[in-house]
């Protein structure tokens, strides 16, 4: 699945007084038809996209679907398959922030209403980058609740992941063959010195928390104590163990140069740049969860030569091919996003209007060099790779197949078949 995305981050800053809306910053609300033309021009058939949660979700049981209807039905007409991103770093003003214990149930209700409104949608990322959202909101003090505590982080994390799980449950009630593509940041922490080994090990354990909970995997004893010491109850922990839906999931992971960190003895971290790279870190995640992989985000700024992003695209694609060649089932690749982004140079902590040249197209919708390179890459590789879809629990169905929703017995049979093959991935 060659993909790109419409950046739809919506965190709040300045104690909730200012919302950073990336679709507004990129002029998507006005130029979305042009953007879909760009997707088609490159030859991309899968688009990470979701309507703006803060504009659609007006209150409990209250929704405004006008913009979602326009955009999603246009994608369907064009046979561009959406991977629907329902929550991307923020919530509506009336909901407050991720410390709100009602978030999980409220968000699940929104997901249910969305699935009823758009029963033809099969692919979802219910909550984008759950770990990053919880860290930036509850631990770093950058977004939304802007807390700087372990309690704030764990509280945000448990609400976000529970919301993701409940959303999957509600969607599956309405679309039994739904596939959930987690878009989660893949991290690694390198010890700077022998004295930093302990802090680095702690951070390397903590990076897995969102996916461990989401997939119902028991955490190790140190992480269990950390969760219990910072506000999670045994009952809340057991919820995740008893709602194990990983057979419906693809492990989508994101990788940027900033995803690897150098850890100092006092626990301070800084970016280390690329040390291990995507393929090595993804092996660690795959060994832990044993799920099909999709590279769901990467990018690099277009620099002074105009070739920096092109070289990064080539390097990331080589890493994806390496995973496939060593037998790790890999089903997709994404350059994120379609157009340039705004203010990610400050991680959306400030609203300065700085354009970051990260897209396949600039904000005037002129194709960048990396867009031309991605178009050629897709043309060269599209017909070579489809056989890897055998690793999926249920098939991804093209939008021209009017066979939704499937009957539950058939979907379950497909899941049983592939669960057996997933236990022996080399045979699959």
From TrEMBL:
It comes from the Bacteria. InterPro entries: GH, Glyco_hydro_1, Glycosyl_Hydrolase_39. PANTHER family: ALPHA-L-IDURONIDASE (PTHR12631), BETA-XYLOSIDASE-LIKE PROTEIN-RELATED (PTHR12631:SF10). This is Family 1 glycosylhydrolase. It comes from Sphingomonas arvum.
